Structure formats: C-alpha cells, structure tokens
From TrEMBL:
Bilayer topology annotation: Multi-pass membrane protein
Family: Belongs to the TMEM86 family.
Matches recorded under InterPro entries: TMEM86B-like
Compartments where located: Membrane
Lineage: Bacteria, Pseudomonadati, Bacteroidota, Flavobacteriia, Flavobacteriales
Keywords: Membrane, Transmembrane, Transmembrane helix
Pfam families (alphabetical): YhhN
Recorded superkingdom: Bacteria
Protein name: Lysoplasmalogenase
Membrane-crossing residue ranges in chain numbering: 5-23, 29-47, 54-71, 77-96, 108-126, 132-151, 163-181, 187-207
C-alpha cells in the first residue's frame, strides 16, 4: 500500500513540475522539482528490503543537481553538473560490480555508439561553451561510460535488471544531450519539456533496475535453499 502511494506521489510531483515548465509557472517548478528525487528515494526505500547505499547516495546527489539547476547562472550550472557527475560515477560503480565477464573488444564495441553521440554533441555546442568546455566534456565522458558499462553488462547477462539499467542510461544521455542543445545551441520550451520527461523516465528506469536486482537475488537465494 505504501509503495503504491509512493509511486503515485512520484508521478504526481513529476507531472506538476512538467506542467510548471510547460506553462511557465515558476511556483510549481520551485516547489515540485526538488520533490521528484525525494519521492523517488521514498519509493525505493519502500520497494526493497535492503537498500543499496550507493544508489541511495546517487539519488541524493541527483536531488542536489535538480535544486542547483532550478536557478540560472554559470555557478549553479557547474554545481548541478558536479552533483550529477557524482551521481553518474555512483551509477557506474553499481553497474561495474554487476559485470561478470567482459573482454576488451566487447568494452570497445559497447563504447562506440555513446562516444559517437558525445563527439557529435560537443562539436555542435563547442562554440558556446567557452570556460564550460572542460566541465561539460568531463561530464559527457562520464555519462558515456555509464552507457558503455550498462550496454556491456546487458550484452554479457541479458537480465531484466541489466536491461532496465541500459534503458535508463540511454534515456539519461538523451535527456542531457537535449538539455545541452537547449542551453548552448538553440533554446526552446519544447526542449525543456522533453528534457524533464526523459529525465524523470531515466531515473525511474534506473530505479526499476535496482528493484529487479534485489528481486532476482532473492529468487536465486530461494532457489539455492
């Protein structure tokens, strides 16, 4: 029952924030955007028995990233970038621990599509980045690595948890790519809406992966007994 209420709460605050963006209602954005990750953390806490501390910490850093990015300016953008950078490093560490077998060739092949997208994106927005070029490139490399290890994990195991994580990584990269285009290339209200829809979707997909991981572990233990 609590899990259903938590899921409804997560969906509700996400929708209200998107409405705030679509209709430029700042009060809705300031009120509900910080609640998105807090509600997801509450949902996760009520979906599993043993919480993954690294994932919980990643959600906390994502929360701070959301708060910083509410405000305009280079300082808050950098602070938000750093917060999400830490979150992605934690996501990467979670996925790396899942990978069982991987050759250098498989890792290389998994990296190619994500780094092609990153290279194209940087080429598109580089003239507007100025002093933000290095931080954005570092962040872009990090999220590309997140996509790479997620694809590598799925290619070796093909489990539900690895599939959800791969979808989450891909949608996260789509969201951040559109955000970068919106900020540094061509600003559009449509882009802002799509950024938030894909961001919320990505966070939920990663949550699904973490829940599936614990379910699959419980099933294996039950089968072993």
């Amino acid at each position: 029952m609590i899990k259903k209420i938590a899921l409804i709460g997560f969906l509700l605050v996400s929708i209200l924030d998107i409405i705030g963006i679509a209709f430029k209602i700042e009060s809705l954005i300031y009120l509900f955007k910080p609640l998105i990750l807090l509600s997801l953390l509450f949902l996760y806490s009520n979906s599993v028995v043993d919480r993954n501390k690294w994932y919980s910490t990643a959600l906390v850093f994502s929360f701070f990233g959301d708060v910083f990015l509410i405000y305009s300016g280079d300082f808050t953008f950098k602070a938000g970038l750093i917060s999400f950078l830490v979150a992605h490093i934690l996501f990467i560490s979670i996925v790396i621990k899942r990978i069982q077998k991987a050759s250098f060739l498989k890792a290389l092949l998994a990296a190619i599509p994500f780094f092609i997208v990153l290279t194209g994106l940087i080429f598109l927005i580089k003239n507007a980045l100025n002093e933000l070029l290095v931080p954005v490139v570092i962040y872009g490399i990090t999220i590309s690595i997140f996509g790479m290890v997620s694809l590598l994990d799925y290619s070796t195991k093909k489990t539900k948890e690895s599939l959800w994580m791969l979808f989450g990584a891909i949608v996260f990269m789509i969201s951040d790519s559109i955000l970068a285009i919106n900020k540094f290339y061509e600003s559009s209200l449509f882009f802002e809406i799509i950024v938030m829809i894909t961001y919320v979707s990505a966070q939920y997909l990663i949550y699904k992966s973490m829940v599936c991981e614990q379910v699959e572990e419980a099933e294996l233990k039950s089968f072993a007994n």
